[in-house]
Design goal:
single chain, about 350 residues, alpha/beta, TIM Barrel, two-stranded antiparallel ribbon, 12 helices, 12 strands, about 15% strand, globular
């Protein structure tokens, strides 16, 4: 009887493994996106024109990991207020709808070192302004965003964090208008054609947005947006917690009504904190002890599970450079991130400049 019990136990284990979400790591796929959001020195307002000597002092680690090579291949300047962008507001902190600190000089600081630059529209502070702007004229907002992208030579990230009732019709109008000026470019050669979206860390928040993005905008057969960033959760996760969140995007949520379809690994990045609370994180300063090290194998090798054909997520994003909050740690000297993000760029062989992205 015991022999049969052992056989049944083995069979049960095999069946459970077959039924479990596909996490088999195939041969590692090189990461392509390795970037950081940037909040300037005023907690993401970008309200004043920066002195570039001071800017370099605070941010030199981004363009030099210690050996002359950049620590990242992408910087996203956060945040643009969508309602001010729609109205092309000019005030003490904003010029024609764009924060005064988001200047051509800042963009060139990064692009001259092979680092791609994008502007993020939104963030949790501007949810109501997103709602108002989309309800007022989502098409014009998209055209205004496209014009700014052309002017500065940058891409645009959609960070619309409306959890309960996002205006998906208005957001579709925004995307359509933007794409009318900057069509999808698989080659990545036109910086302004890069249009991405932030989704939740997993599929249990921003559910309607996750569903729409996965079903219509992030498909590999008819791509509309380039990719998504699975945002950081409320606090830094454990290794398993981060991987569980990202796996939700790969699996989708068939049990939801309507369901969220699975997302191709090649269509999103995973995000980690480098400045959180009051303590310096190893993700900033110590790659060996970091989550990008612990999850690197998963990110590079996780298999598709219902969408896409190639293994491995696009890469990592880090929240956030310089001063992401008025209180807490920064990534300015002496807490710069060469030892964590920069060392990770070396260990993970992050390409600079960013290559054309995998499409399937």
């Amino acid at each position: 009887m015991r022999r049969f019990a052992v056989v049944f136990a083995v069979l049960a284990t095999v069946l459970n493994l077959l039924a479990a979400p596909a996490r088999a790591a195939t041969a590692a796929t090189p990461i392509q996106v390795y970037g950081a959001w940037h909040c300037s020195n005023d907690a993401c307002l970008w309200g004043g024109v920066r002195d570039m000597t001071d800017f370099d002092h605070n941010n030199h680690w981004l363009i030099d990991r210690g050996d002359g090579r950049p620590s990242v291949n992408l910087v996203i300047l956060a945040f643009v207020n969508p309602l001010r962008l729609l109205n092309q507001t000019t005030d003490a902190n904003t010029l024609a709808g764009v924060p005064r600190g988001m200047t051509a000089a800042v963009v060139q600081y990064f692009t001259s070192h092979g680092i791609r630059v994008m502007l993020s529209i939104g963030g949790i502070t501007y949810v109501n302004d997103w709602d108002t702007a989309l309800a007022t004229n989502g098409t014009q907002l998209g055209l205004n965003a496209a014009a700014v992208a052309t002017q500065l030579g940058v891409g645009i990230e959609i960070d619309y964090e409306e959890n309960t009732s996002p205006n998906l019709t208005g957001l579709q109008a925004f995307i359509d208008a933007y794409r009318s000026q900057h069509p999808y470019d698989a080659s990545g050669s036109d910086p302004a054609a890069r249009l991405t979206i932030d989704v939740a860390a997993g599929d249990r928040w921003l559910i309607d947005l996750d569903r729409k993005a996965s079903a219509d905008w992030l498909r590999t057969d008819t791509p509309v947006l380039d990719y998504a960033n699975a945002m950081v959760p409320s606090r830094q996760p454990s290794t398993s917690g981060a991987e569980d969140n990202w796996q939700e995007h790969l699996d989708g949520k068939a049990q939801y009504s309507p369901p969220i379809p699975p997302l191709a690994p090649a269509k999103f990045t995973g995000s980690l904190f480098i400045a959180e609370g009051s303590k310096v994180r190893p993700e900033c300063t110590n790659f060996a002890a970091s989550l990008q090290n612990a999850t690197g194998g998963y990110v590079q090798g996780v298999a598709p599970h219902g969408a896409g054909t190639t293994a491995g997520m696009l890469g990592f994003m880090f929240w956030a450079a310089e001063r992401p909050s008025t209180r807490g740690v920064t990534t300015t000297p002496p807490n710069t991130c060469e030892g964590g993000v920069g060392a990770g760029a070396t260990a993970l062989n992050a390409p600079v400049p960013m290559p054309a992205l995998r499409q399937s």
